[in-house]
Amino acid sequence: MLFRSRHSNKVSPVRFFLLAILPLLLVGCDQTPTGRDQLALVPESMMADFGRQTFVQLQQQLPVSTDESARRKVQCVAEHLISRIPARFPGATMPTTWEVVLFADSTPNAFALPGGKIGVNEGLLKVAQSDDQLAAVVGHEIAHVLAKHGNERLTQELGIKTVLFIVGLFSEGDADTENIRQALGVGAYLGIALPFSRSHEQEADAMGLELMASAGFDPRQSIQLWRNMAAAGGAQPMEFLSTHPNHDSRIKALEERMGNTLPLYHQASPVNCER
Q1: Quick check: is 15 in a domain?
Q2: One of 122, 141, 152, 203 is an active-site residue; which one?
């Protein structure tokens, strides 16, 4: 009687809504590669489309670097990291192909998007002073994609009803493009500042550390990277730092993970992308 009128056999809107979302909730309840429970309702094919569209827009707004040596270095680091994903995170949904672009932007930043898109700014190469340090950042960003953080945040930010509209269960709603960009983690590039949550950042740090170590990059250099970030930030935090956890707590967490991560590095073949 809670959902059905006394005078009608019609299903009430409330019950219809619950019946509509139940299958999606069951499908959307999943676990990240670290075992954390998450709710990510948007189909991965749609997330990939969002990522590719956003990447095209970024390429229209940001100039692409002409530094061939730097571009080869970034490509090399990314390829080594990507090559280890199937073995390190076999259950993760992974794009079949990846595109890596170095942007001529002085901001020390990087990002990865669903659909296999990776962007790195030239400014990051002045702070990430080695292959290992660059791998710490790129591995972290790839981890956001593997853990479906953009999907999870899109579900949270837009709300269940709007997500249902996006996937076609409602004919009315407002699938805000800006919110989609925010959920994908590139809002700062487009003048929309909404960072990933602290739990997302911590999870991406843990996964990124494992990924870089298993690919042959020294995970200890991730600690030096954040010291460089802190030193370069000065009194006014840089954009990259301002959208991530406090660097002191981040360094402490990375140090605590070294015991489990260093064996992966020692078992891997060293990488040299400076050639």
Answers
A1: no
A2: 141
Strand partners, 29: 39
Is residue 141 annotated as part of the catalytic site, yes or no?
yes
Tokens coding 206: 């843990």
pTM of the model: 0.78
**Angle formed at CA 6 by CA 5 and CA 12, multiple of 5 degrees:** 10
Q: What is the pLDDT of residues 53-93, one digit of tens each?
A: 889 989 999 999 999 999 999 999 999 999 999 999 998 88
**Is residue 66 domain-resident?**
yes
The answer to whether residue 213 is domain-embedded is yes
| H or E, element range at 112 | strand 110-113
Residue 130's domain comprises 44-186+196-267
| Closest by Cα among 193, 189, 154 to 56 | 189
Give the number of domains in the chain: 1
Q: What tens digit of pLDDT does each residue of 194-223 get?
A: 457 778 888 999 999 999 999 999 999 999
- Run of H or E including 139: helix 131-146
